[in-house]
Amino acid sequence: MSGSRLRGVGRLGACLLALAAPTALLAQQPTPVVVRGTVTEQSAGTPVMAANVTVKHGSARTQTDERGEFTLRVGSPTDTLVVSRIGFERVEVPLAGRSAVAVALTRTAVQLSEMVVVGYGTQRREDVTGSIVSVDSTRLRDRPGTSVLDALQGAAPGVTIRTAGAGAEPELSVMIRGRHSITANTDPLVVLDGIPYNGSLAEINPNDIASIEVLKDASAAAIYGSRGANGVILITSKQGNGAPRSRTRARWACRRSRTCPA
User: Fold this and answer.
1) How far apart are CA 81 and CA 56, in angstroms?
2) For residues 107 and 89, what is the distance between their CA atoms, to the nearest angstrom?
C-alpha cells in the first residue's frame, strides 16, 4: 500500500472520529425530567402547604400547593431533592430515576423554655431585641407577700413599686423606668392573658400566675400604641393540664373546758 493511500485512510478515520465525538457527548449528557410529588405530615398524613422543594447543589426550586403537591423540572433523573419547611425536619430524597415521589415530614419539637412573650406572640429569647424582664412563677412563689406588686418589688430591674398610703391595705403604685410625666398618669398597661386588664393588680392571686413579662422600652408603644407609653406588664395565668383534680384541706380542733377552783 502506497504512502498516499495510507494518508487517505488516516484522514478518513480522523473524519469519522470527529463526526462520532459529538454524538457520544450528547449521549453522555443527562436528560432533564419533570418530577411530581406530594408532601405530607408523617403523623397525621395531612398535606403540607408552602414546603420548599429544591434540587441539591442546583438552582431549581418550587413550593407545594394547598394540597401538598409540587411539580419540578430537574436536570437529571439521578438528582436529589431537598424538602424543608419551618417547623419540620429537613428531608433529602434521592430520585434514583423516579419521576414521582412521596415525602413525609416530621414536626420538630420547640422548647418552650427558650420562648418569651413579647405582646404579639412568642419569640426565641436570643432573637428578642427589646428590653424585656421575665419573672417566672417560682420566683413569685418564693417571695413573701399577698399581692403581685409585692412579688415584683425588687424582682424586676427598672420597675419601681411605691407605697402611697398606710394601713392594713396600703395603696401601691408601679412605675417602669421612672416617672415620665409630672401631672399625667404613669401607671403601665397591664395585659392579662392577651386582654387589657383595668382592675387592680392586688385582685390577682399570685398563685394563679405562670409568668410575668415587663416591656420597658419603646417597642411597647409600637405594639400597644399610646397605652404602652408607660410600659407594659404582661401576665400569663396558669392553664389546666391533664385530668381534672380536686384538693380539699380541712382542719379541726377540740377544746376542753375546765372548772377553775374557787
Assistant:
1) 6
2) 6
Q: What are the grid coordinates assigned to 200, written together? A: 387592680
SS3 state at 225: helix
Cell representation of residue 67: 394540597
Using CA atoms, how far residue 161 sits from 178, 182, 184, in Å, is: 10, 17, 18
User: For residue 126, with 0-12 CB atoms within 10 Å meaning exposed, 13-18 middle and 19 or more buried, which class applies?
Assistant: exposed
Helix, strand, or coil here: 203? helix
Q: Look up cell 419540620; give the residue.
A: 88
Q: Where is 235: in which H helix or E strand? A: strand 232-237
**Greatest mean pLDDT among 13-17, 184-188, 252-256:** 184-188
Instruction: Report DSSP letters for 25-55, one per residue.
Output: HHHHSPPPEEEEEEEEETTT--B-TT-EEEE
Contacts of 182 (CB under 8 A, 6+ apart): none
Summarize pLDDT for 179-230 with one digit per residue, the tens. Answer: 766 777 778 888 888 888 888 777 888 778 888 888 877 766 677 777 777 8
Q: Which three cell numbers stand for residue 56?
A: 441539591
Rounded (to 5) percent helix, strand, coil in the chain: 25, 30, 45
CA distances (Å), 138 to each of 135, 191, 203, 235, in order? 8, 20, 20, 14
Task: Tell me the pairing of strands 189-192 and 195-196.
Answer: antiparallel
Dist. CA 232–CA 135, nearest whole Å: 14
Number of H helices, E strands in the chain: 4, 16
Cα dihedral sign, 148-153-159-161: positive
pLDDT, tens digit (0-9, with 9 covering 90-100), for 131-141:
677 777 777 77
